[in-house]
Design a protein that fits this description.
Blueprint lengths: L8 H15 L4 H13 L9 H11 L7 E4 L19 H6 L4 E6 L4 E6 L5 H13 L6 E5 L8 H11 L6 E7 L3 E5 L12 E6 L6 H11 L3 E5 L8 E6 L4 E12 L22
Parallel strand pairs: 3-4, 4-7, 7-8
Antiparallel strand pairs: 1-10, 2-3, 5-6, 5-10, 9-10
């Protein structure tokens, strides 16, 4: 470990809190997270390892479910001094996995089922998403299976939502960062081209991050019936940071607010719903 890296758990936690203050929008949630970490791990001199990383992660996730710490005992990476953001996704890898379109089928009763296991960058994923929904034309009802979807690009969330929420452009969410805000919208579609069949979305413990966002947006607009188990509740936008040579972090940097509910799914997840599905 380099001489200027934190060498004990208390110092490491202080280093982590410093990064959170650099990344997260100011406010009560950041204050609670920083104070809880500082108080919980004060005076802890033991070395940072996989077990202590799990302990810090578990405490932090009481405030931000998407904060993750990964410990590599053989790690020699150079710690970040600036946030570099997500690296580009290899287009060849996206093509090899068909942008996460794991299965598309039509049941004997006309039900269309789309199993989508990731949300790759929209510039690569769009042809696969468009092709999948083309097969939904004429279906009696729609099922979107997100139970194995770990999330990804909000742009792909918006693309999928525009096929399901009607022809008119509409706001989905606003994300507040420390230094900026960004809104996500669906685009307007040709009249009558959006799908309006009854929609069921399957969720579970493996539905995470932006996949939760997609299910949540559809649920709060009354468009979909949610079936399965509650999702983990990871609503923040996050960014990767190499905290030390051995610890890689996925840290929150943006707070998502749904344009309809004025809230999000942080900490509670997207939960199964009952009742009629609204027809757009």
């Amino acid at each position: 470990m380099a001489n200027d890296e934190p060498t004990g758990l208390s110092a490491f936690t202080g280093h982590l809190v410093g990064w959170l203050h650099r990344l997260m929008p100011p406010g009560p949630r950041l204050d609670r997270l920083a104070a809880d970490l500082g108080e919980t791990f004060a005076g802890r001199p033991e070395p940072v390892d996989a077990a202590t990383c799990r302990e810090v992660e578990a405490r932090a996730q009481l405030h931000s479910r998407h904060l993750e710490l990964r410990f590599d005992p053989e790690g020699t990476a150079t710690p970040d001094t600036e946030s570099r953001g997500w690296p580009p996704v290899d287009r060849g890898e996206v093509l090899a996995r068909a942008a996460g379109v794991r299965e598309v089928r039509r049941e004997a009763d006309g039900t269309f089922v789309l199993r989508l296991d990731t949300l790759d960058p929209v510039e690569h994923a769009a042809p696969f998403v468009e092709a999948a929904f083309a097969l939904a034309r004429g279906a009696t009802r729609l099922v979107l299976d997100l139970r194995g979807n770990g999330g990804g690009d909000p742009g792909t969330v918006a693309l999928i939502a525009e096929h399901l929420l009607g022809d008119h452009a509409q706001p989905l969410s606003e994300v507040t960062y420390r230094d900026r805000r960004r809104q996500w919208w669906t685009r307007a579609r040709p009249a009558g081209s959006a799908l309006d069949q009854e929609l069921t979305v399957l969720v579970g413990a493996g539905t995470y991050s932006s996949a939760e966002a997609l299910a949540y947006h559809l649920q709060v607009r009354g468009r979909a019936r949610i079936v399965g188990e509650a999702s983990p509740g990871a609503a923040d936008h996050v960014t990767p940071v190499q905290l030390t040579a051995q610890v890689h972090g996925i840290l929150p940097e943006g707070t998502v607010i749904d344009a309809v509910s004025g809230a999000n799914w942080e900490g509670v997840g997207v939960r199964p719903s009952e009742g009629l599905v609204h027809q757009v």
